[in-house]
Amino acid sequence: MKKLLHVIASPRGEKSRTLQVASAFLERFRELHPEWMIDEINLFTDPLPVLAARQVDGKYMLLGGKELYGELRETWEDIEQHIARFKGADAYLISTPMWNFNVPYVLKQYIDILVQPRYLFQYVHGHTEGLLKGRPMVVISSRGGDYTTPETQSFDHVESYLRVVFGFVGITAIEFIKVEPLDGVSAEAVRHTVEAARGAAREAAARIPA
Ligand SMILES: Cc1cc2nc3c(=O)[nH]c(=O)nc-3n(C[C@H](O)[C@H](O)[C@H](O)COP(=O)(O)O)c2cc1C
């Protein structure tokens, strides 16, 4: 069975404008692909492993071409489960607001857990190669400000960061739906912007190959 993994990086549940747009994507996606399983990870409520001294030791073992063994392997069990869940997906939906010009810290933590040598990338003749090639991703990102002008575009590290890090593991077909500006504007403007983004999200759902 094919699987879409929905990664939620807003803590605001029903109040989240990002998730209001994501729900339009998911409704359309379910209509078009009733046979797909939709897995959902909420990074603010599902516990994430830390990446502290012992876990990082494991990363350097792998980078050095060694196997994990004994206690280190046990320490890595949670990390491996998250990696397996992520790798088990055929397509991805990431719902993330902008926080301080980048993604919320839990999404950064999740990415630091996932991006591991031999699991998501490997070295080939001294170069790195992503292991998740060909999987589509849609990123829905809402933000308070407007990052569409020439003066503000470079402040948007959400898109630049996610393109680089997921591109590194082979996910290069990434479509962004940006929902902006949402703060400091009228309630009517918010409604209008969210509604337009919901339309774009439905169209993006239809572009995910069966
Ligand atoms: C901790 C925090 C940091 C934020 N930083 C930014 C920012 O750098 N730029 C911006 O335009 N909006 C920023 N915002 C506003 C949110 O991006 C905006 O309200 C967004 O719609 C929230 O998404 P949500 O409703 O899905 O939670 C921030 C909000 C919070 C809570």
From TrEMBL:
Catalytic activity: 2 a quinone + NADH + H(+) = 2 a 1,4-benzosemiquinone + NAD(+); N,N-dimethyl-1,4-phenylenediamine + anthranilate + 2 NAD(+) = 2-(4-dimethylaminophenyl)diazenylbenzoate + 2 NADH + 2 H(+)
GO MF annotation list: electron transfer activity; FMN binding; oxidoreductase activity, acting on NAD(P)H as acceptor; oxidoreductase activity, acting on NAD(P)H, quinone or similar compound as acceptor
Domain (Flavodoxin-like fold) ranges: 2-199
Cofactor binding, per record: Binds 1 FMN per subunit.
The organism's place on the tree of life at top rank: Bacteria
Cofactor dependency: FMN
A matching Pfam family: Flavodoxin_2
Subunit-level organization: Homodimer.
Protein's name according to its UniProt entry: FMN dependent NADH:quinone oxidoreductase
Gene behind this protein: azoR
